[in-house]
Design brief:
- Chains A, B: Pfam families: APH.
- Chains A, B: It is an enzyme of class 2 (transferase).
- Chains A, B: It catalyses: 5-(methylsulfanyl)-D-ribose + ATP = 5-(methylsulfanyl)-alpha-D-ribose 1-phosphate + ADP + H(+).
- Chains A, B: One of its GO terms (molecular function) is S-methyl-5-thioribose kinase activity.
- The structure is a homodimer of 403-residue chains.
- The first copy, chain A, has 403 residues and is an alpha+beta fold.
- Chain A has two domains: 103 residues, 2-Layer Sandwich (Phosphorylase Kinase, domain 1), CATH 3.30.200; 286 residues, Aminoglycoside phosphotransferase (APH), C-terminal lobe (Aminoglycoside 3'-phosphotransferase, Chain: A, domain 2).
- Helix content of chain A is 53%, strand content 13%.
- Chain A has a five-stranded antiparallel β-sheet with strand order 1-2-3-7-6, sandwiched between helices. In chain A, strands 8-10-11 form a three-stranded antiparallel β-sheet.
- The first copy, chain A, starts with 8 loop residues before the first helix and ends with a helix.
- In chain A, 48% of the residues are buried.
- At the A-B interface, helix 5, helix 6, helix 8 and helix 11 of A face helix 5, helix 6, helix 8 and helix 11 of B.
């Protein structure tokens, strides 16, 4: 039996030929290493004869960030492959197909999405994705509703909670999203030009109290099987197609965390456009497009979620008038709060986003970062006043006009 | 290796001598069967020579209620024994000592509490328990706080959540507490004299919506390792001592569920005293004693919980000003709601309480049942207005004065 060892290009080719029937015997495979290998090794294998290609993703037993390295469970590869299979069943076509999983090597072989672009980059280039709001709204509604206690027998849901218990990956989120950014921790890093704003956040007890409540929800609210890391770097797009990838952080948590991740990352893109789009008219035009996209995502999500509630609910209390309205309002409030947390951590914390990092002028970048921090704080602090999606987007419009 | 089989008296004696060293070889054991055996077989073994006694509790692979019988996991015996050991570590002296656990036989051998009285019966006899509020307040504060994300590293807490995942026992609560009583289900049973009031409840969408929210909290809010069935039949008392028994329903759930169980059951006793205490002065006197007890329980709980938060919190966000106040307010709101649910289910649902069932005159019993339903509904519907424990007790006082 094979023991765990990191694959190299040749090893990847040998594995694919020996342990899978994905390619014919006479295949002429070429292998290309993709990505930075900080958490995972990713290889693209292509058969030169047929043109068929696949992705092999192998988890590494540690994570690396800025020189530091810490051990990290290989079990996340199991969780990721099982989550992808689960999502593909619930939302066919919206995640890459899984072809093969190897527990010992922590290896998943899946559909190649090389003709797709990481969404974050497309947004920086002001690309438009006419089907994205509907796709991601559907993905959110179906994956969240169908794994919840409203749709599943409570005993099945409890088994899933155990299957997807993901303590080590959750700990990364608990620390990096909800803790370090709110203290003067060595793990933080930020643009020195925004130091004053960051220090104000560290002193803002009201904000920190609201973040503590949101963290508590992340720790205790086992509402649905969430993706857990649904930023625009975990979404690959073409004009026609959307694929959600990398559910390594999957666990049973609050629905609003996933929706907030999408909203927060679209708003991080929003905040970055002063750096990417010098022309004011063009910039405002695209920023307005992003806000409309957020509105459409929630609208699609809500519509589909209500249909599922109507048709698929197994929970007997679901028929009670007003229950779905209350439920969605709580999800929206959470989404606002988590969107805010996601924005703040990407400015102050350890892991930043390419949208802003790719702005080379520190002053221009600081403008975007300050805007992101203003929006993020507002979404956390005022989330209980958010009664519809426009209460989020109008707050952003207002902040920009005031700025 | 032994296979599971139900013990009888002789089998219990043989087991104790053969598989434990609880008694000397020359012990003269006598065995007495205790309880109704609906869910568990319970034996008391006494050594006539030394007077030493123990309790042997064996789970049966089914539950029986009113003739019906359904299969029930033996794993609950593991959960119960592990919970008792955990509680004894956290709250020494407040639970029976576990001496021995046998997985195959689903058998727990523990401290004999025959000199203690089931609290429910003591309350019907208007006994007073000067240390009870402090004991149970400590039990609640310590077991709930010390198993929460505030006290435990998040990864440890997640492991405990899996260890104590208890789907089958939870399902009983989900159905019998939060579902059947709110529909005209065959599982319900109630005094025909209160049929009008019960039908009003079935039509009360506002109440049912609030119960749906509380049920959702029971299903999704993995806040602390709760007892899960902390009524006054799970508490054994003497004037000096308090022991919490039978944690078969233990799982990670909302703290307020345990506190609400205690409050709700004291209020069920309150509502039963027209049937037990004909003398008005005496009755009002004891009822006031019960309300004061509820106030003292919360006060003790809160004091101890705040001290633990101050001294034992591992969660870094715990230091944020106002967090503990907010946290406790949520727990109190939940406690009010769950107290109400617990009261209502004991009047309308399948399983009733001896406090009221022992009133033979149906009219007199109906008076108590209606009072319990009024109090229960108020505690559910007005829980968000509950800002301190007196907001609960004053509502009860008010209802009685109006009645």
């Amino acid at each position: 039996m094979l023991r765990y060892h990191p694959l190299d290009e040749q090893g990847a080719i040998t594995y694919a030929l020996k342990f899978t029937d994905l390619f014919p015997e006479n295949a002429q495979l070429i292998c290309r290493k993709v990505g930075d290998g900080n958490l995972n090794l990713v290889f693209q294998l292509t058969d030169k004869r047929s043109g068929k290609s696949i992705i092999m993703k192998q988890a590494r037993p540690f994570a690396r960030a800025i020189g530091e390295s810490w051990p990290l469970t290989l079990d996340r590869a199991r969780i990721e492959s099982q989550a992808l299979i689960n999502h593909d069943r619930i939302c066919p076509g919206l995640v890459p197909k899984v072809y093969h999983y190897d527990r010992v090597l922590a290896l998943t072989i899946m559909e190649d999405l090389s003709n797709h672009l990481i969404m974050r980059k497309g947004l920086a280039a002001r690309k438009r994705y006419p089907h994205f709001a509907s796709h991601i709204g559907t993905f959110l509604a179906r994956t969240l509703f169908m794994t919840s206690d409203i749709a599943l027998p409570a005993q099945t849901k409890k088994k899933r909670t155990v299957q997807f218990m993901n303590p080590e990956m959750c700990k990364i989120s608990e620390d990096l999203i909800f803790t370090y950014p709110y203290f003067d921790s060595g793990e933080n890093q930020f643009n020195p030009l925004i130091a004053d704003t960051v220090e104000e956040i560290w002193m803002n007890n009201q904000l920190k109290l609201e973040v503590a409540k949101l963290k508590d929800g992340f720790l205790t609210h086992a509402q649905a099987l969430i993706h857990g890391d649904l930023h625009t770097g975990s979404i690959m797009v073409t004009e026609e197609d959307t694929k959600v990838i990398d559910p390594e952080f999957t666990f049973y948590g609050p629905m609003g965390f996933d929706i907030g991740a999408v909203i927060g990352n679209l708003l991080l893109s929003f905040a970055s456009h002063e750096g990417h789009t010098p022309d004011l008219g063009e910039r405002m035009n695209y920023q307005e497009y992003l806000l409309t996209m957020i509105e459409q995502i929630w609208t699609c999500f809500e519509k589909e979620f209500r249909q599922l509630w109507e048709k698929e609910a197994k929970e007997r209390m679901a028929v009670i008038p007003g229950y779905v309205d209350h439920y969605l309002l709580q999800v929206l409030e959470d989404a606002s709060g988590y969107a805010g947390c996601k924005m703040i951590r990407r400015i102050i914390g350890l892991a930043h986003v390419w949208d802003l990092e790719s702005i080379s002028d520190p002053k221009l970048r600081a403008n975007g970062e300050k805007l992101a921090l203003s929006v993020g704080q507002k979404l956390v602090l005022e989330r209980r006043q958010v009664k519809e999606i426009y209460d989020i987007t109008s707050r952003v419009r207002q902040l920009v006009e005031l700025g």
